[in-house]
UniProtKB/TrEMBL annotation, chain A:
SUPFAM superfamilies: RING/U-box
One Pfam assignment: zf-RING_2
Name assigned to this protein: RING-type E3 ubiquitin transferase
Keyword match S-adenosyl-L-methionine: no
Lineage of origin: Eukaryota, Viridiplantae, Streptophyta, Embryophyta, Tracheophyta
EC number(s) reported in the record: 2.3.2.27
UniProtKB/TrEMBL annotation, chain B:
Provenance organism: Eutrema salsugineum
ATP-binding among keywords: yes
UniProt domain UBA: residue ranges: 153-192
UniProt GO molecular function: ATP binding; ubiquitin conjugating enzyme activity
Official protein name in the record: E2 ubiquitin-conjugating enzyme
Protein origin, superkingdom: Eukaryota
Amino acid sequence: MTSRKNTHWCNTCRRGIRLQGEGMRGRGERGACIHCGDTFLERLYENVELSPFDFFGLAIEEARNRRGNNRRSILENQLSFQELFNRLSAQDRRGPQPASPTAINSMQKIKISKKHLSLDPYCPVCQDRFETGSVARKMPCKHIYHSECIVPWLVQRNSCPVCRKELPQDRNIGRKNPFLYLWPFRSSASASNHNVSAFH
Amino acid sequence: MIDFSRVQKELQDCEKDKDASGIRVSPKSDNLTRLTGTIPGPIGTPYEGGTFQIDITIPEGYPFEPPKMQFSTKVWHPNISSQSGAICLDVLKDQWSPALTLKTALVSIQALLSTPEPKDPQDAVVAEQYIKNYQVFVSTARYWTETFAKNSSLEEKVKRLVEMGFGDAQVRSAIESSGGDENLALEKLCSG
């Protein structure tokens, strides 16, 4: 088992990543995280060894702390002050992150039947009555919404408006992780992001 | 874009069971972006018997963004600013959901009056008093309820202001020129 070197730190997933080859766009272009697709990355100047046994990313955190105030990465990435401010304040918000576009697109589409209307005839967001035969979206927790009512919310926050259950995480995220097979437990689709990211 | 049809529906729903819930929401302006909410002080708390008014502003992104709410009635509570009426409540911030409504938010505020969270304060002075000297907190909160959250008769208002040391005639004219608003009358008396 060889260890791999991380080249960047993703501020969104808070873990080290390796950007090379396909992950890296052309020189001068900003790379994107292979896990979340975000571009809020820091280059790790002294490449940090990522041991497969470093389940909690301690080595990376330690290296980040060692570098202390010499963090040039933000300037390096040429983030404008406004962009930096927006991203930091977005991160500051507690609670779930936005649902992934894949998860939103694959959310079940249903045709409203009389059975649905007998259970709950109103869309919880707009509070309008569903029309029989019209198409609506059903979350895995079984709550039903108009598409135009639920999508704008999920883009903002991955949480069912009624019960706060999340849409499943993007399954492709797991496949791209080279160490996933080391994880002794099978993570359920609804496992929180923390469980999945803990061993990167 | 604000979903005005939803706001309209919410207002009708509140109107329907206002007698059962005691909670009212009424528009301040024609365009439904500024509203006034009213909640009764919960029974068994220092706020009992008071009627509390809350200024509501509907933001552009409603219902995907929470309504902005703050007390316009002065209230003594660890999670409500005694100066500005600002409310520290998770459902009005990061725990908002578009399935919540103005009424459920007001119910949450009413519940907050019953169960203060002094460890997550909005008003540090009130929170400190709550923790260190609970009895003084209760009597201060009750006094504020009596003074600011109760509709009292003209004579009661006159009596209270006269007790503060102002002349009877002066007090009556101040109350009259303030449209019966005791707080405004007090401000006028203090400034003039």
